[in-house]
Every structure is written in C-alpha cells, then in structure tokens.
Amino acid sequence: MTDQHSSMFEDKGASLFDALLPIAFLVVGLFFSVRFFGEDSSYGPNQIILLFSGCLALIVGLKNDQRWSDMEAGVYGGMTVVFAPSFILLAVGIMIATWIAGGVVPTMIYFGLRLLSPDIFYAATCLVCAVVSLSIGSSWTTAASVGVAMMGTAAGLGLSPAICAGAIISGAYFGDKMSPLSDTTNLAPAVAGVDLFAHIRHMTWTSIPALGIALLLFTILGLLAEPATDRNDLEIMMAVLDANFTIAWYILLPLVLLFILAWKKVPAMPAILIAALTGILFAWIFQTPAAGADAGTGSSLQVIWTLMFAGYEAGTGDAVLDDLLSGGGAANMLNTIWLMLCAIFFGGAMEQTGLLVKLIREIMKWATTSATIIASAVFTCIGANIITADQYMAIVIPGRMFKVAFRHHNMAPVNLSRVIEDAGTVTSPLVPWNTCGAYMAASLGVPTMVYLPFCFFNLLMPLISILYGIVHFKILPLDDNLIAE
Prior knowledge:
By secondary structure, this protein is mainly alpha-helical. Helices cover 73% and strands 0% of the residues. The protein has one domain. Helix 12 (253-263) runs antiparallel to helix 13 (268-286), helix 19 runs antiparallel to helix 25 (456-471) and helix 22 runs antiparallel to helix 25 (456-471). The longest helix is centred in the middle third of the chain and has 29 residues, at 196-224. The chain is globular, with a radius of gyration of 23 Å. The two termini are 30 Å apart.
C-alpha cells in the first residue's frame, strides 16, 4: 500500500479553505438528502451528492494548477479498492438467496425462535456474533451468515431490527478486531511496526470494557423490550417453517462449511460462492418445493438461476414469514455497489488533489501532548472512514501520518496500532457510504443511520481510546513497545 498511496502525502498547494469546500458541500448535500428522502437517501440521493462533491474537489485541484489527466488517472486507479468488496457483495446476495431456498436460514430462524428468550436475545446475539467473528476473523462473513439468521429471528420474536443489527455489528467487530485471523488486525500492527500478539494484548484493555458495557446495555434493552409476538404466534410461525422447509441439524452444514473455509483463510469471494453452491445442493436434495425440483430438472434449474440474481420469493402463506424469507440475489446488491463507487470517487478526488492531507496536517497542528495526539489520531481515523469510504485507508493513512508524532512524545508504536483499530476498524460500519457501512446495511436489511445508535461497541471504542489518552491509562512508553500488558 505504500507506493499506491504515497501521493496523498505530497503538498499540492491546497489551502484550508480549499480542503473544507468539498467537505462543506458534501455535509450540506447529505443533510438535505436525509431531509428530503429519509431512509431512502442511500438509494440514489447520497450517490449524486458524493459524485458532485468529488467533482468539486477535482475543480479545486484544477484551480491549484493540477492537470485533469493526472487527477483522473489517480482517482480511477485508486478506485480498484472497491472491486473486491463489490464482488463479495454480489456473492453474498447469491448466498443469502440460496441459503433461504436450501433451508439454512429458515432452520437457523426456527432454532433461534425455539431456544432464545426475548429478554436475553440482544445480548446473546452480540455474544454469539463476537465468538463466531473471533473464531473466523471476519465481521463480513459473520454478518452475512449468523447475522442474517439473527435478523430473521428478531423479526419472528417481534423485536427491534435496528437494535438487533446493532448487536450483530457490535459483536462481529469485537471479534474482527481481536482475532489474529482478521486482515485489519494484521494490517494495523504492520503499519505501526509492532508484533501482532502484542497488538492484540494491548487492545484487550479497550475492547473488553467496551464489549462488557455493550452487553450490559443490550441486556437492559432486552429486559425493557415488549415483543410484538406472543408464544402462540411463535408456535404457529415455527409450524409454518416446518411445513414449508425441511428443518434439521444437518441443514446447517453449509454454515459449518463456510466457517471452516473462513478459518482456513480461503479468500472471501470463493468461500462465499462455495457456500452458496452448497445451499443450491441442499435446496435440490432437501427442499424440493423451494427449489422447484418437483417441476422437473429444467424448471428447477431456472428457479435456482433466477433466485441467484433476483432473490428468493417466499410463498409460505404467512405474511410475516414471506416478508422475512424474501430477499437476497445479486441484483439487490447493485445499489450498494453504486454507493461505494461514488464514495470511493469522492475519497480519491480528495486524496489526489492534496485536500485530504491538508486536513490531516491541520488537525495535527494542535496535537502538542500525548492526549491530544491520541485524540487527533482517533478523529483522523473517523474522518478517513468518512472521506475515503474505506476502512483500510482509515488504518493506513493515520498509521503512517502519526507514527513519528507518537514516537516524538515517547509513546510506543503499540499505542498507535491500538488507536487506529479502536477508531479506524470499528467506525467503518457507521458511515453509510463506507464499504463496511454499505455492506452491513445491504446484508442485514437495515439502513446504516437506523442501526448506528445501537452499535454500542463501535461507538464506545473511540471514546474509551480518547479517555485512556487523557488519563494516561495503559499508554505504554517507548521502551515498553513489546510488553503490551
């Protein structure tokens, strides 16, 4: 990444006014986008604002004597970062549809309705997702598998989808940032120049308290919740699931396969597609009506082919379950990909014109103590997630920019690696146009701004990191770089 992003550290003659102009345009545009379109703002309006904001940044670059061809080449070259998430999203859309048809999602919902009490559901969801994500090192895979089932179970129990999504994301990102199998958990110490396990040990001091508080809050919300579905309705819902799908423990084998592939570090896209193909196989073998297998091989193939691109359409006769089990499909992910493309375009324009580095350097000017340096790094990570729309950039850019400052103030690099994970990794799903925010909203079916207030772990992490800097708690001096305990 060093060569790819080296241009962003160049001084290209931009003023602070230049840097703030596209940001101000974006903020005002997004305000009116939400005001006019509400929860639908991410289905077109936000994309238009991001596109025009990026063009404004390029116009500022022209004003500062930069060549359009150079800026254009840089922006489009940087947009390659969105390719992998886009194809993963398409694969997730296919997998969700085939897992519904194959009975995987209905089975998980069935067992969830039978086993989980509404009082502990939110806390249990957070804890389950934390364990799964910790074991496989992927918040995305956790959300697309266990998360989707938990959302269905919450709907069946009559609980809040927004709180459930917040619990899923809180747990998934705890596991993601604490797992040695996670790419971001390996990236952060690599950028800061520290040992991986020293980095993980040092993160426990911020992550464990944040998860504990989150679990407490989810427990309180669960105890205060008033489920809209009574036990008789649940029994009817489970009976309908049992009548329309084969429900058995072995139907969950595609889920087990996906976890094994993730644990073996098989790349996300082939792992998800393999799991999707397994869902198709299970649909043909165990779920004859859902796969259309009772209509002949040709018709069955057409049914499966259609649901992979258009999504699964449930026909159980129960309105709640039909709404719950209708979804997925690659085509339903295209709007999210459009959002990510426009966001990366804006971030690339800000980077190539030197406006992003100008903003970061202005932030660093008031960082004269260890506490203000840590706070500056936190806000830079959050800002990078907003502007660049990519969590990797939100780790790499602040990690490189603040490396010297941390050393200058006698803070071990392991403090920096923890800060950029506390603020860079976990705040990425809180930005609607960030690749992570767009992915979570598309996978869980809840708009980012709706689930955001309930992502307690993600919201607490930057605050705890800043607090530790202020009180100088567990801020290791330079000599203790490898003794993160």
